Amino acid sequence: MASRNFYLQLILRVILITLTALGIAMSFVKEWYFTFGLMVILMVSQVYALITFINRTNRKIAYFFDAIKNEDFTLRFPEQVTIKSFKELNQSLNRVNGLIQEVHLQLQIREQYYQEILRQASIGILSFNEKGHILFSNPTMENLLNYTPLNHIKQLAQVDENLYQVFQSFKPFERRLFQLSTEREQIQLAMKSTPLVLDGQSLLLVVAQDINDELDEKETQSWVRLIRVLTHEIMNTITPIASISDSIIKYYRTNDEMVALEDLDETQIKNTLKGLEVIKDQGNNLMDFVQSYRSLLSVPDPNKAIVSGKALLEKIEVLMAAKPEKSSLEVSCEPSDLEFFIDEKQISQVLINLCKNGLQSVKDMENGRVLLKAGIEKESIKYIEIIDNGPGIPEDLIDEVFVPFFTTKSEGTGIGLSLSKRVMQLHGGSLKVRSIPNRETVFRLTFV
What we know:
Layout: H1 2-30, H2 33-69, H3 84-120, E1 124-129, E2 134-137, H4 139-145, H5 156-159, H6 161-168, E3 175-181, E4 186-198, E5 201-210, H7 212-252, E6 253-254, E7 257-258, H8 266-297, E8 305-308, H9 309-320, E9 329-333, E10 339-342, H10 344-362, E11 370-376, E12 382-388, H11 416-426, E13 430-436, E14 440-447
Helix pairs in contact: 1-2, 1-3, 2-3, 7-8, 9-10, 10-11
């Protein structure tokens, strides 16, 4: 409505100026000089009024936007004016001003809400720009680093020089573990970086968390599981030895007295020999068990080199072709030029072990399938997955599969998955599993 009235007044003024111009021309032609002079004065007045009219509206709108830019919402335009178009325009500007003010207040409230969440977060949060200036640091981060206030990452050198080097060399999407010793305690920090762009400025957001409690809990759980498995295996080996030894002793001792040689019969001697053979076998089994444990502790450091992912997977496919389940294995590598920086022998052994497990799990299925897949994620994280559609791993056993000597098979030492995980740790990567029984089981090797 305001703009329509504005245009109507503008058109009217232009028409009046046009009529005045015609009057000036006619007066000049008729030589009505007095009328000519009045028309010229009227023309100047109308042009001046038109310019003032247009500029007044432009200045009003310019003032309005300047006020919005400076977050000044106190500007009010008079609504009690005689010109209807100006009245409606002023009312519209005031309404827009009120709406923007309301949105601004809501944004401020929301910003304060988010700021409070960040301050109360149980993890440390810190952001800094390319020059190292810290733009935000919540109290949790300052407590973890035992330094306040944090204005520049160079201040971290006063906490720990190595910590400053870590922050200085942080790359986007990078994860770091850092053991920090402060005056109060020694903490284990797990840190992760994420790139941000704010107002055209590149920032790096770093979150940090003290994982000492979590590590202690995991370590305790690992020891409990390991001791439980060790106890089970050792007891299974020693119990027959103790039982047979007790039976043999009874052949040669009665009422705490040694039996005379002439009282021994051939059956007792044969049973004694059989018992000693069983004890020997059980002893050898126990020695093999200990040797398996030693192999877990003596994994050599990887001798890394650039290896083609496609060639690696094709090699595994050829090696597994001799297995009776060969028809179930498929390989996929995307992109085809994917490369890994690994110890090929160690990783090949890990993949063979995992593929063998997968093939064994689907060998009795009609549509059993194992997929060996390599790829790369958006964050430049390379991975290899072994996927099968076998019976899967029960939920109550999923946390036990990497425990040394734990196995659900009737044969085997249960050392394969533990050894595979150890190899991946030495490569700086990880080996994880997820399973949906009777649908899908995925062992994932991640390389960083």
